[in-house]
Structure formats: structure tokens, C-alpha cells
Amino acid sequence: MERLDDEGQWIVMMGFIVAVSIFFLALVINQATLVGQTTAEGVLEFPKSEIRDLQSEVYGVVEAGNSATLREDIRALELARNNALVNYSAVPEIKSGTTYNKTTIHFNNGVTAYDETVYL
Q1: Over its length of 120 residues, how does the chain's per-residue pLDDT go in tens digits?
Q2: What is Dmax (Cα atoms) for the chain?
Q3: CA pair distance 101, 2, nearest whole angstrom
Q4: Is the CB of residue 92 less than 8 Å from the CB of residue 99?
Q5: Dihedral of the CA atoms 37, 38, 39, 45 (nearest 10)?
Q6: The pTM is what?
Q7: Terminus-to-terminus CA distance in the chain, angstroms?
Q8: SS3 66
């Protein structure tokens, strides 16, 4: 009885394993690229400068004295310039014998919602 030569089977099996490994690595690299792109898009879409501008104006209004006219002007400007809904409130609170204005800012442009509370 003759014994069959099985070296060819090993070569085919190793080729199959290498092909599956390369396919798996290609999938992993493809997913890593998509995650990086999505993260970069999220960073670019965050309205950092608009929020900083809003904070600056609100802090100035609260320090100068809360005015209903200025509040409505800020809301109208944010809606017209950035298509964003904003709201803020300043409530006096006493902490450690000192009166502070508890200022709450809400910003929402349909993509990003931002809320902040600070004592001024």
C-alpha cells in the first residue's frame, strides 16, 4: 500500500490561513479609519467659538445687571447668526456670606446641546 504525499495540502491550508488573516487585518484597518474620521467630524462640528462668544456676552450682562431687553437681544442674535436656541438665567444666591449670581446657560443648535452653570 502506498502512502500519499500530503505536503500539497499543507501549502493550500497555509495559503488559506494567510488569506483569511489578511482579510481580517483589512477589516480592522478599515474600521479604524472610519472611527478616526467620525471623531474628527465630531470635533469640527462642535460650536466652540459660538459658545465662548455666548458665555462672554452673558457674563457681561450678568455682571452689569440682568436686563430683560438684553436677554431677548442675545436670544434673537443667536437664532439669527447661528440658528441656535439659547437661554440663560441668573439667580442670586448667598454662599459663605457672599452673594453670587448662579448663572445657567443653555445652548442648542440642533446638533450640539450645551448646558453650563457658573457662579459669578
Answers
A1: 566 667 778 888 999 999 999 999 998 888 877 777 777 777 777 889 999 999 999 998 888 887 788 888 888 888 888 889 999 999 999 989 999 999 999 999 888 899 999 998
A2: 104
A3: 96
A4: yes
A5: 110
A6: 0.63
A7: 96
A8: coil
